[in-house]
Design a protein that fits this description.
With about 240 residues, the chain is of the alpha+beta class. It has a single domain, classed as Fumarylacetoacetase-like, C-terminal domain (Fumarylacetoacetate hydrolase, domain 2, Alpha-Beta Complex). Helix content is about 25%, strand content about 30%. It has six helices and 13 strands. Strands 1, 2, 3, 5, 6, 7, 10 and 11 form an eight-stranded mixed β-sheet that branches. Strand 1 and strand 2 form a beta hairpin. Helix 1 packs across helix 2. The radius of gyration is 17 Å and the shape is globular. Keywords: Lyase. One of its GO terms (cellular component) is cytoplasm. One of its GO terms (molecular function) is 2-oxopent-4-enoate hydratase activity. This is 2-keto-4-pentenoate hydratase. InterPro entries: Fumarylacetoacetase-like_C, Fumarylacetoacetase_C_sf, Hydratase-Decarb/MhpD_sf.
C-alpha cells in the first residue's frame, strides 16, 4: 500500500454517490484486500456512522465483508430514490444485534447477541459503469456494490427456519418473478459473525447493539429491470420497497 492512496480512491466512490458520472474503474486499483478495506474505512468516514455489514465473496471464492452506513438501512414499505437501470436486488435474511459483540467472542456469544432476524432486501448498485468489468478489488473497496438494506418483518422461530430453504417468493410491480432459492444456514452466519467481531474491531468499527448483518443472498442478485416496487415474502413475513 506504499503507493496506493485509499483516500483518493474513496473520494472517487463518494463523488459518484453524490451524483458524479460512474467511471469504468478506480484510477488506481487496490493492490490487495488490506488496501480495499482501507478504502471501505475512508468511504464510511465520508458517509457517517457505520451500522451494517454484509457477507461477500471475492471472485466467488474468498469470504470477506463490506461495511455500510446506517443511513442506508430502511424499513419495508418506504420509498427510496431511483437507482440506475442496471441495479439488482437480493433477497436475504438480516441478523439484528441486541448487544455489543467484542473481538474474541465465540459462537455461543455471537448467537446470544442476535436479538432478532428479519426478511430483508439488499439493493445492489455499483459506483462503476459496469460492476462485472471493474477490478474485483475495486468492487470490494466499493463495499461489494451494496446500495442499501431494506428490513422487513421478523421471522418467527428463526433457529430452525433459517437452516434450509424458506419457500421465498419475489415480485416486481405485482408480477411474480421466477426465482431459484439458495439456503444460507444460520450456522454459517454465526461462524461469520464470530470472524466479523474481530474484523470490525480491527477496522475501528466494533459491532454494537442495533447493528445489522445480512447473511448472503438466498435469491439473486437479479436485475430489477426498472421495477418501481419490489416485494418478497416467506410465509407470513414480507418485505418491500418502492422507488421514486
Amino acid at each position: 500500500m506504499s503507493q496506493f492512496d485509499p483516500a483518493a480512491a474513496a473520494a472517487t466512490i463518494l463523488a459518484v454517490r453524490n451524483g458524479a458520472e460512474r467511471p469504468a474503474d478506480l484510477d488506481q486499483t487496490p493492490p490487495d484486500t488490506d488496501a480495499a478495506y482501507a478504502v471501505q474505512r475512508e468511504v464510511i468516514a465520508g458517509l457517517g456512522q457505520g451500522g451494517a455489514w454484509k457477507i461477500a465473496m471475492l471472485e466467488g471464492r474468498h469470504r470477506h465483508t463490506g461495511v455500510m452506513p446506517r443511513s442506508e438501512i430502511s424499513m419495508w414499505g418506504e420509498t427510496r430514490p431511483a437507482l440506475p437501470k442496471d441495479a439488482c436486488v437480493e433477497v436475504e435474511t438480516a441478523l439484528i444485534l441486541g448487544a455489543d459483540l467484542p473481538a474474541g467472542s465465540d459462537a455461543a456469544a455471537a448467537r446470544a447477541a442476535v436479538a432478532e432476524v428479519r426478511l430483508a432486501l439488499e439493493l445492489v448498485s455499483s459506483r462503476f459503469a459496469d460492476r462485472t468489468a471493474a477490478n474485483p478489488l475495486s468492487g470490494m473497496a466499493d463495499n461489494f456494490s451494496s446500495a442499501g438494506i431494506v428490513l422487513g418483518d421478523q421471522i418467527e422461530e428463526w433457529d430452525g427456519t433459517l437452516e434450509g430453504k424458506m419457500d421465498l417468493r419475489l415480485s416486481y410491480d405485482g408480477t411474480a418473478v421466477e426465482v431459484t432459492e439458495v439456503a444460507q444456514p444460520l450456522s454459517g452466519a454465526i461462524e461469520f459473525l464470530v470472524w466479523l467481531a474481530d474484523h470490525a474491531e480491527a477496522q475501528g468499527l466494533p459491532l454494537r447493539r442495533g447493528d445489522v448483518l445480512i447473511t448472503g443472498a438466498r435469491i439473486g442478485p437479479l436485475p430489477m429491470n426498472g421495477a418501481t416496487e419490489v416485494r418478497a415474502s416467506a410465509g407470513s413475513a414480507e418485505v418491500s420497497v418502492s422507488f421514486a
